[in-house]
Amino acid sequence: MARTPKSVKSPAAEPVDAERYRLLGARLQELRRLRGLSLKEVAEQVGVSPSFLSMVERGQTDLSLTRFSRLTEYYKVQPSELLMEMNATFDDPEIRDLERFRAVPRGPGVEYFVLQDENPQMIYARLAPGAAFSDMRAHRGEDFWLVLEGKPQLHYGGRRFDLALGQTARFSSTIPHGFTNPHKRPAQLVALCSVPYW
How many CA atoms within 13 Å lie on the side-chain side of 167? Predict the structure, then answer.
């Protein structure tokens, strides 16, 4: 007498697999949206229906290896990038107000905060109009500064360098250095210090 085959659960019904499908789908959806593409455009290029692709992005179905490969080739990403840490759990991002970080006094009109203490040390500085660092400092390592706003001036080894929005300055920290803001608008910068100083 022939045995009746047992029904097999769909992989999507398993909680662990369902979470994997959800994460993979969310990453695929993010890739598509970052590129400004519609479901229809991507579906046509990889040979699936828009409704199927929508289900994949919502984590409601799994993907064959062939279809997964087509998607990674189309988006020009490595499969490992999409599958990375699929079993890991993540904490929510840590969101803090700037004032909650450690402040370092650098002179009147200067806000100076240590955002991260090491690996590398990260600094935020805001100079009010006419403000300047109260002293020039030198320390081990290398600094990398990025201008977020305004036109600060970098004083470095007795010379002055005018900077503007979007410009960077990378230099040896062993030379005395600091910033001034001679203009009528505030200046903001962030920095990475290869060797912690503060």
Answer: 12
Q: Say which residues have a Cβ less than 8 Å from residue 174's Cβ, sequence separation at least 6.
A: 138, 139, 140, 141
- Taking the CA of residue 133 as centre, how many other CA atoms within 13 Å lie in the half-sphere pointing to its CB? 18
Place of tokens 């828009």: 50
The answer to whether position 179 is within a domain reads yes
Domain span at residue 28 reads 13-83
Only one residue has tokens 């390592």, namely: 141
Amino acid at 84: M
Tens digits of residue pLDDT in 133-175? 999 999 999 999 999 999 999 999 999 999 999 999 999 999 9
pTM of the full structure = 0.62
Same domain, 21 and 78: yes
**Taking the CB of residue 106, how many other CB atoms lie within 10 A of it?**
20
CATH number assigned to the domain comprising residue 115: 2.60.120.10
Q: Which residues of 145-157 are buried (b: 16+ CB within 10 A; e: fewer)?
A: bbbbebebbbbbe
SS (H, E, C) 55-102: HHHCCCCCCCHHHHHHHHHHHCCCHHHHHCCCCCCCCCCCCCCHHHCE
Count up the domains in the chain and report the number.
Answer: 2
Residue 1: inside a domain? no
